[in-house]
Amino acid sequence: MEEKSKDHRVLLNQGEENELEVFGYRTQNLRRALCLITSMLTCGFLLLVFYWKPQWRVWANCIPCPLQEADTVLLKTTDEFQRYMRKKVICIYLSTLKFPISKNPEEPLVADRHSVINQAVLKPELKLRCIQVQKIRYIWDYLEKRFQKVGLLEDSNSCHDIHHTFGLGLTSEEQEVRRLVCGPNVIEVEIQPIWKLLVKQVLNPFYLFQAFTLTLWLSQGYVEYSVAIIILSVISIVLSVYDLRQQSVKLHKLVEDHNKVQVTVIVKGTGLQELESCLLVPGDTLILPGKLSLPCDAILIDGSCVVNEGMLTGESIPVTKTPLPHGDNTVAWKSHSLEDYRKHVLFCGTEVIQVKPSGQGPVRAVVLQTGYNTAKGDLVRSILYPRPLNLKLYNDAFKFIVFLACLGVVGFFYALGVYMYHGVSSRDTTAMALLLFTVTVPPVLPAALTTGIVYAQKRLKKKKIFCISPQRINTCGQINLVCFDKTGTLTEDGLDLWGTIPTADKSFQEVHSFASGKALPWSPLCAAMASCHSLILLNGIIQGDPLDLKMFEGTAWIMEDCNADYYKFGMSDSNIIIKPGPKSSWSPVEAIAILRQFPFSSSLQRMSVVAQMAGEDHFHVYMKGAPEMLAKFCKPETVPKDFPQKLRNYTVQGFRVIALAHKDLKMKKLSEVQKLAREKAESELTFLGLLIMENRLKKETKPVLKELSEARIRTVMITGDNLQTAITVAKNSEMIPRGSQVILVEANEPEDFLPASVTWQLVENQENGLQKSLAYTVDKLFISQMRKLRPSKETYLNIGNSSVPDGARGSCYHFAMSGKSYQVIFQHFNSLLPKMLVNGTIFARMSPGQKSSLVEEFQKLNYYVAMCGDGANDCGALKMAHVGISLSEQEASVASHFTSKTANIECVPQLIKEGRAALVSSFGVFKYLTMYGIIQFIGTSLLYWQLQLFGNYQYLMQDVAITLMVCLTMSSTHAYPNLAPYRPAGQLLSPPLLLSVFLNTCFTCIVQICAFLYVKQQPWYCEVYRYSKCFLDNQSNYSMNVSLERNGTGNATLIPGSTLSFESTTLWPITTINCIMVAFIFSKGKPFRKPIYTNYIFSFLLMSALGLTVFILFSDFQDIYHGMELIPTLTSWRVSILVVVFTQFCVAFFVEDVILQNRRLWLWIKKEFGFSSKSQYKNWQKKLAEDSTWPPTHRTDYSGNGKNGFYINLSFEDPEQIPRAKVELGDQTTEQHFWTRL
Fold this sequence. Notes:
Layout lengths: L1 H7 E4 L7 E8 L1 H13 L3 H8 L1 H8 E3 L7 E6 L6 E5 L1 E4 L23 H4 L6 E7 L2 E6 L4 E4 L9 H8 L5 H11 L11 H9 L2 H15 L3 H34 L5 E6 L3 E6 L8 E4 L3 E2 L3 E6 L1 E5 L1 H4 L4 E4 L11 H4 L8 E2 L4 E6 L6 E7 L5 H10 L7 H30 L4 H14 L5 H18 L2 E3 L4 H5 L4 E4 L11 E9 L2 E2 L3 E2 L10 H8 L4 E3 L2 E3 L2 H10 L1 E4 L16 E4 L11 E10 L4 E8 L5 E7 L1 H5 L11 H9 L4 E10 L4 H6 L2 H4 L4 E9 L6 H10 L3 E5 L4 H10 L8 E8 L8 E6 L17 H7 L26 E6 H10 L4 H7 E5 L3 H13 L4 E5 L5 H6 L2 E4 L11 E3 L6 H38 L7 H18 L21 H24 L13 H7 L27 H21 L13 H19 L3 H7 L6 H26 L2 H11 ...
Parallel strand pairs: 21-34, 21-39, 34-38, 35-37, 37-38, 39-40, 40-41
Antiparallel strand pairs: 1-2, 2-3, 2-4, 4-5, 6-7, 7-8, 8-9, 10-11, 10-12, 12-19, 13-18, 14-17, 14-19, 15-16, 15-18, 20-41, 22-23, 22-24, 22-33, 25-26, 27-28, 28-29, 29-30, 30-31, 31-32, 32-33, 35-36, 36-42, 42-43
GO molecular function, one term: ATP hydrolysis activity
Organism: Zalophus californianus (California sealion)
Pfam family, one: Cation_ATPase_N
């Protein structure tokens, strides 16, 4: 039984973001027939239910079975939403191909031994079973017993496999097999037909309920309001359909050119063949002739090329791609290249702008992924199938609607009982009961809930902030943590050259300042700056990374294409020649040719080039990169002893520091250079010096961070830059307030006998004049001998011996760490991670993947996270955050929910303000509509007691003149200009809101019931609904001074559905003014919105409605009373009504404003009754505030069997005091020393 259950269920995309559970089912004809008959009997209602709940359709029509035999599968997401999808299993038959296929099970269908296709074909039937999920095809693997993705090369292929299996192309037969199995290489976005979009909108459950309500109202003659709601709903649906259609058309245009590219491939045994890109399959060998828009993802195997990856990264900076190295090992090709495998991959949708053949033929690439499996396909899929938004407002709103519907059901049975008791016909009884049922759920609700968002979106558009996910505007109101990228976000995008510090004789020389205007003098450092970059010459314009461009411009050298004049280099493939410019200083070198590049990557933090100088027969290697990283690759004797101090001296001032190095290659042949491994090139270098660049804060940064801090919104920096630079920028921008302590967290992977370790050190605060410091050196001897004693090899900071003051624990300390340390803590110290994230402020040297992971970890602590970046390497984090804000207008901004055309962080507080205003507006409108439904429900229920209801024009006054207008204008109040130091309530089902609705319901109930009973006690009261004929005959003039006798004669039969009575005349002004009253009370202004009087239209409409109601109440015009179906009463009675509703208003306003909206009162109640927050981060903050040992300083924790139980106080382990002899003992002494300490 267990085995059968296991075969019935498998995981799809295990461990990925789009992980799904797959369940196998087989259709039963008997069940199917029964469902069909039931659908016909229910007039299609069952089909509608199946449309809303696809899992019910599967469960009703099918029985569970092993997936291997299933004809239908049910897919369920493994996230918190637990959404279901139904898919039919499709069979593909290879026998349809035009050439014979071997039916021998031992013979593989494709040459690739790793391919899932060989394991998915059932022989001798030559059949495959597949499903299509969100544009991706999966085929059933009979060996692994699970569905596997097709349309890509398996990751298990090694470099050797890719070169030798696919390097010469596929046979035409294998191409045909792969085309049939993988499908076409297209990214097609269907333009949805208008009728289909319309049907999807109309089949929304609420719209169907609305249609039922309006049909009932129209049948009862309530035409005017019904028509108004129909018009409003039609406009809403049309606008939604138009918007969806426009998005569909826009997306279709974005991808349609992708499918029309002509490409050249190598066919094994045939040669070159031209074909359309839609026919490409994984494994095809593609020829790159020159400029080309890539129609697929491909691995470069021969030659190099320059690509514009603006579509993916948001920055139109040329990126150099290098060929996948040859290798004989069996290591997977991605693992062989570690994190830097992207340097060999050409991504779909990017532009090849330049190719460089290797001399062994044209530039070649192997197709890696096709269709929606590609990078561009994945981007399009993320737009087509966005991650659902789990906003409490909508979940709570649904629960509220269910409650109102339940109230309606109670009303339905109440009406049935009353009308049946009085012997009213079943038709009238049912109609009136249904009418009361529909009163509680206002049909204007969907339109009302979206108006706040629409108004906020318009206001944001005026501020040049654009939104592709309007529902996220409400989420902005809950933001309590904002993550910022540094470069281009907090600081200026461009860097300015400040100076260079060359080295000679193991020491730093005099600084050359660029501000002096003097040309950079010739030196090896100048040669490195001129040649070590990834710049290209395109149409006579130098293009590339802004940092590279700035550095190259600082040399005053120029770049030219290679031509016949440069024959002295003895090579024809070099097309980048660097030579001194007219403004450069004297140089003994006529020109430098760049022969080979090892590109920069954020994971390696360095780049290098192989170059040759004019007239020389040997080659040079130049390297640049992060100083901490580059020093490791240099000979220790060439690194100045004061390197750590010098580096810190500049980084602490916020400068961006780049180090450069050089070495002579002993090779003399170009062929040897082409085969040179990066590891060999980047070793034993000579340290040349430092390049200092300024990265200034944007003028808007400091005020915005201060505003967020005052609003108690936490700010965090996530950057790829140097840790010390990040700390300095954080201090300068006051992200870390003055007087706060910074604790450096450094972690190391397990090594030999040492488990993983994490060290906590207090960064020296220069303001307090701390002199004693522990300086980490980059001396290679110390690195190699002391790596087990020292937790970090990357960061060079002065560490003070002071500890965090006892009285200043809490938010006075901030953790700072590198991406490497974060990764180690994530893997080996997971229990420590929440503790550090609660006070973690600076995360430096973070890779794009680590940024996404960090945002997700913050979300797990129940933070509402916003991510603000320039779109370059922040796409993953922008997409992962609750609110992603891109400061880039490139195509990568598609990944973010908001895009600001103003490239500074002023958009962040603006978004939060508008989000808070929209959220408060949504809550206010929802509370109003709830009370409006309850007010009408109570009034109508009281009148139902005597088989009456309000007149059509009475309802019309409340529904159109008040409610409709209120819903359309209440949300137009602008956001308050200042951010409050707390957030609005995030859920409808909160005590203040529930109490507000409950107490207002009680007030309304008491007033209406008292009025209903008290009017019957008046001496002039007459049961008009019983004696209407007598009353109308005697009171044809509607006299004011009416004097009626209770014992009047006439027809005493009960008239169901009549409207004329003293009860309705009394209740109508009370309910109408009640609606106006709650609209005013619930339209709260400060601290999240401007005062109500600034919303001129809304204020005017409320005053007008109130004036009109009072006018009707006190007017003596017969036509008005006749039209409104009211009875004239004594003036004193009307005054009494006005006094009662005014008293109710005063009580309700006092309760709402002074008690329910009193934040201090609720905080006191929470404290007195011991209510604690459910937010993880608040609980951690509370625990840590009570922990006297936290934060740790000057200690090292070691992981051991999952327990962090080893502690060492590093303040007593000053490396400078360790005798040199002890270090020279090597690994054995280190090991003994470690165990001794344990």
